[in-house]
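task queued by scheduler; priority normal; single chain, no ligands, no partner chains; default sampling; output format set to structure tokens
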Amino acid sequence: QVQLVESGGGLVQAGGSLRLSCAASGRTFSTYAMSWFRQAPGKEREFLADISWTGVYTYYADSVKGRFTISRDNAKNTVYLQMNSLKPEDTAVYYCAACKTFGIATMRRVDEYDYWGQGTQITVSS
């Protein structure tokens, strides 16, 4: 079992930055690919970024490429999402998710993930 807990959300002005953290319990964190998603009110959950179990490979959705950076620290059982140049349309609940795989980073379907965090709200004001 893996439990995921996101932190770092909040209110930020447009153009600002935030860093989200996702802390995982358990000793098998390094065997999971980790991703970040977000969900705005009335919209489907949207894939943002994925990082392979080693941290060597990353993959980003076009909507955040160049603005967001995913990283992980397997020694700390934590994955991060650095978000820069935030826009009002980035307002959403942000989730981390874990997928048991040794493949490269890629965009995955929601139903491919084994565990999800509870989410953290990000609000970007204009």
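post-processing summary
- Residues 30 and 74 are 6 Å apart (CA to CA).
- The mean pLDDT is 95.
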